[in-house]
Amino acid sequence: MQVIPIDWQAIETVFLDMDGTLLDLHFDNHFWLEHMPQRYAEKHSLTLEEARKKLMDNYQSFAGSLNWYCLDHWQEILQMDIVGLKHEVADRIALRANVIEFLDYLRSKDKRLVLLTNAHQKTVDLKFEYVNLRPYFDRIITSHDIGLAKEESGFWQKLEQVEEFDKNSSLFIDDNLDVLNAADHYGVKHLLAIHQPDSKQATVKTSKFTAIKCYTQLMTN
Predict the structure, then answer these.
(1) In this structure, which topology does domain 8-25+94-218 adopt according to CATH?
(2) Contact partners, residue 38, CB within 8 Å, separation at least 6
(3) Which ranges in the chain are annotated with CATH 3.40.50.1000?
(4) What's the CA angle centered on 103, arms 101 and 108, to 5 degrees?
(5) CA distances (Å), 4 to each of 70, 212, 221, in order?
(6) For a Cys-Cys bond, which of 14, 25, 88, 205 suits 197, CB 3.0-4.6 Å?
(7) Which of 39, 37, 51, 44 is nearest to 88 (CA)?
């Protein structure tokens, strides 16, 4: 597998996304597109097709906004126990290949590690019950702490107010191209995408961003 050259001496802070980057996005896609429609149909006496349509209309209304990532928002809108429903399919929560090895590698190089996720804190807490990545991070920041989703204008400027970093010596890895474009616009120098965020779906085109197939590509020295 082709090595992705990184000048680790030039990197001080590594910002890492969670879903689709450190964790397989299959859990999230299955939950929102399969499990939730099934449970929603059962609760509201709808056909599965009716439930899917209603949910998709709701999803599209809030896509890209902070509310899209907010479990409290969805619990209120849908009148469903979102956390409880996520636990029902938690066996699908899984690390991407070689994530632990990569995090150990970064720690050995004394990099500051910051989890930078759009996920709601309740989602982070739930997932870390099953895959405990918490000890690897110097800090965990959710977009809810900032008040903006990562793809929204102004996110990185607000992040600067709560986390000290140099955009020229920071590496940010994320599977969301809108998020990466926002970081690029802000001026984060080192950016990487993910080749296949969901292990059960096809690979994605990542435009101008170099994409990681496996974290071993970055563990070069």
Answers:
(1) Rossmann fold (3.40.50)
(2) 48, 51
(3) 8-25+94-218
(4) 95
(5) 34, 8, 12
(6) 25
(7) 39
Interatomic CA distance for residues 136 and 152, integer angstroms = 27
Compute how many other C-beta atoms are within 10 angstroms of the C-beta atom of residue 93. Answer: 21
Residue that the structure tokens 């309740």 belong to = 122
Tokens of 45: 């006496």
Count the neighbouring beta carbons within 10 Å of the beta carbon of residue 85: 17
Dig out the tokens for 88 from the structure: 């029902």
Question: What does the pLDDT profile of the chain (221 residues) look like in tens digits?
Answer: 799 999 999 999 999 999 999 999 999 999 999 999 999 999 999 999 999 999 999 888 888 788 888 899 999 999 999 999 999 999 999 999 999 999 999 999 999 999 999 999 999 999 999 999 999 999 999 999 999 999 999 999 999 999 999 999 999 999 999 999 999 999 999 999 999 999 999 999 998 999 999 999 999 86
139 forms beta bridges with 114
Q: Are 155 and 146 in contact (CB under 8 A)?
A: yes
Residue in the block written with tokens 């997932």: 127
171: helix, coil or strand? strand
